[in-house]
């Protein structure tokens, strides 16, 4: 009763603690205090626990000698390098497998996504089967399968499958010749650089000309000619300053040349096939989102099916595809950490695995590892957002 | 007087109907299509018959020992048959299997009315399943009360552990996800940024590192002496990880609700929580059910990662069986078995989510 | 600058305060919960291995059981946490497990900067190599250029690097998380040799498709004293683990077995009487019941029994006692006297 009377008699202004602005400030202060207290407690607990148990802390361990070997390194590494170096080695291996995986998954995904919408019945069915099978099986299982089930039947190094005395395939990996750059090769690289820069300018110019006059220019052919021809010319002028280091069979293994180790191959195959299936679905939904009228209009203009797809459908579909593609790229990068299950020396296996265990500094090592993945994820998101914005401008 | 009788229609030319016509238009319409079709047929010929032979025709199905498989050239399903109980129930005591069966049977029985159109109390039933069912299941699994013997979590394993991990992940991440999603759409800058940071952090790190952290490092963060079960810690890690993904799904649903609904709720004088609980969330959650199912599928597959921290889910327990000296060399059978189980679960759930999507779409067509 | 000092001293203060509170914390916690949480290997026949029903057995498992027998008079009051080599120290440091008995090598780094205490040595081991007979290798020195399957996070990884560096040879490490995976990869031909502690090599060889096709090379390239470990900070707990192991070794030396321990109760030998808690300091020094050692022997057996049952002639591994024989039989197993 009393409340009701007050509500009628008092002015419409609510009590102080009922005002949304006041409440919001109060609530936020409460949140900040809560989180601050939570963080402080965890920090204190960790510090106490580490202290009590006599565990070393700090990042000094990064300068200590590691003393163990790593299967595959992109930068020079042996046992005498530091733990800091193992971090770099692991990081580069992660970036390698993530980069290659993104490339192949995109390739497979686009192919399969288009194939699924193909008018060819059997092709579209095959693509459907591929997508539905590989999307619904855990990635870890696929990695283990490719590694342990596909590795087994390959022959040993002495019975390698040999192609042309150049490529050797065995259960130790695929060995192939590696290039050895001799003096004067810099000119070839320079020529390649010049050719690429020139190509960009030509493409811009051709685009402008087409906008202005409608005349087309054979950009693709010119660019291919430039990028291949110019370095080739430099190569011949400098007297072919390149030789190949061929792999040679030794007592146990092949020596020399380059090698794709089976761990990398299995991880890459599994990652690209798994993620490719998701990308194919994204591509399909993207293409379906473009109204059929667009295809008909393009056909009416006399564009061939291939050109219709390339010039009309895909650019519009990309707007739908890109956000989904971004999250798939992020997933692939994070999933590459499953490498640890088959012994591919990525960041998690080398740094959060061996290094953590040899030094025992779990907090520092895991924090660094998580920070790296966060940084990679954020940069991929930022790049894709930037790209998405760029292509969004196409819409008028 | 002669009446005009129309000549009966001629049948269409043989090459545009029937098998021939169909294959002409669908398989061999252009030279390129012909080449592709032939290639695809060759590929199928290469893969499918040997696979069927290996899996079904040449496979060994009967027997209890390795010797039974010695003669067969195909798969040795005896290996799976001998260990099937372990694959399903882990190290759970054999006499207590009925508890697991009862728990999952109960879920099936409870879930059936959700699919019946005329059933009125779907919301209440769903709430019951989300809140009380987990408690019942926990009692059944863990025991210790009501005359049930206590079974330690270290004995849980196999497919039942996989299902539990995925189930707990979803149930626990749902409320957290709702709060985070609301927080991310909040107008309060601090609340919003806290939620954004939380979501982006968990979405940016791999599940392995999360599991590793929760499995071995969590006790370092807690006050001295607090310690709890390894499985529970893994579940906490999974739930936190999953809540970030859940938040993003729910945010999509919230964004899809027309602004008028928010304004109408405010006009009615409902408080924030009332307008969310009574107006916005019921609509938004219904919209995102397919999304939640998809998250569940992803989580279901991701639970295999717990093998890296030493929990015996389906995949881990199958892998462990490979090391049995009596059954060496049957890893492909094990992997194929695991793959088909996961596939059946994931595929049927994804179909369900797709059909749901279709049904919901028509409801909101404008 | 001042601020940092304040924080630092605050941290130091809380640390000292809580260190006092910490003494005996593990032991108290173990007593309160009524069982020993013991970290063991995920699966290594002879050392720690679970059967289909999830029952653990092995030489390392017996140490956990001995501690439980000493503390609770019941060797079954143990819960096992299977750990990979990578996880083991973090699990111990974080307090997830009370003790670690997982064929862990005692080294200076681990003893000093990892916050661990090694309680003794229950198996003297050394790193060796296993190769396929087909390879025709007779010595590890012939392995220049070979690739090796190793388990991640072990001393094996470091020893291998040292050995090849000091002999000026090249090698390729192929590293896996679990020993099962190393065997699988070795079996598949991914590497030429498998390297691990010698005891493990015999255990792992059974897991090969064709165990007779592989052979263990004679070289032992390192010292690997394996033993149970506790976390630093609780000396009482550490001593219980330590003396549980010593009791097993002493019992073997005195000829007390699980079979004759009851009969030995009435022995006149003062050494035996002291071990079995009939006279002397009994259990009070460790804060245990007087019959602690008798309980260990009754329920777990003496060191020799445990050895033969798990890895010796009574097992499928058939490892000879060698260095693990008692000190008076030409081996290294030597326990301080109980008096």
UniProtKB/TrEMBL annotation, chain A:
The keyword Phosphoprotein does not apply. It is a multi-pass membrane protein. InterPro entries: AA_ABC_transptr_permease_3TM, ArtM/GltK/GlnP/TcyL/YhdX-like, MetI-like, MetI-like_sf. One of its GO terms (molecular function) is transmembrane transporter activity. Keywords: Amino-acid transport, Cell membrane, Membrane, Transmembrane, Transmembrane helix, Transport. It is found in: Cell inner membrane; Cell membrane. GO terms for cellular component: ATP-binding cassette (ABC) transporter complex. GO terms for biological process: amino acid transport. PROSITE patterns: ABC_TM1 (PS50928). The chain crosses the membrane at residues 21-43, 87-115, 127-149, 184-205, 217-239, 259-280, 365-387. It comes from the Bacteria. CDD domains: TM_PBP2 (cd06261). Residues 91-384 form the ABC transmembrane type-1 domain. The keyword Transmembrane applies. Its main location: membrane. Belongs to the binding-protein-dependent transport system permease family. HisMQ subfamily. This is Amino acid ABC transporter permease. It comes from Sedimenticola selenatireducens.
UniProtKB/TrEMBL annotation, chain B:
Belongs to the binding-protein-dependent transport system permease family. HisMQ subfamily. It comes from the Bacteria. One of its GO terms (biological process) is amino acid transport. Residues 159-353 form the ABC transmembrane type-1 domain. Coiled coil: none annotated. GO terms for molecular function: transmembrane transporter activity. The keyword Membrane applies. It comes from Sedimenticola selenatireducens. PANTHER family: INNER MEMBRANE AMINO-ACID ABC TRANSPORTER PERMEASE PROTEIN YHDY, MEMBRANE COMPONENT OF AMINO ACID ABC TRANSPORTER. InterPro entries: AA_ABC_transptr_permease_3TM, ArtM/GltK/GlnP/TcyL/YhdX-like, MetI-like, MetI-like_sf. GO terms for cellular component: ATP-binding cassette (ABC) transporter complex. It is a multi-pass membrane protein. PROSITE patterns: ABC_TM1. It is found in: Cell inner membrane; Cell membrane. Keywords: Amino-acid transport, Cell membrane, Membrane, Transmembrane, Transmembrane helix, Transport. This is Amino acid ABC transporter permease. The chain crosses the membrane at residues 34-56, 97-116, 123-141, 161-182, 194-222, 276-297, 304-322, 328-349.
From TrEMBL, chain C:
SUPFAM superfamilies: Periplasmic binding protein-like II (SSF53850). One of its GO terms (biological process) is amino acid transport. InterPro entries: Bact_solute-bind_prot3 (IPR051455), SBP_3_CS (IPR018313), Solute-binding_3/MltF_N (IPR001638). Residues 1-23 form the signal peptide. The keyword Cell membrane does not apply. It comes from the Bacteria. Residues 35-264 form the Solute-binding protein family 3/N-terminal domain. Gene3D superfamilies: Periplasmic binding protein-like II. Keywords: Signal, Transport. CDD domains: PBP2_BztA. PROSITE patterns: SBP_BACTERIAL_3. Coiled coil: none annotated. Belongs to the bacterial solute-binding protein 3 family. This is Amino acid ABC transporter substrate-binding protein. The lineage of its organism: Bacteria, Pseudomonadati, Pseudomonadota, Gammaproteobacteria, Chromatiales.
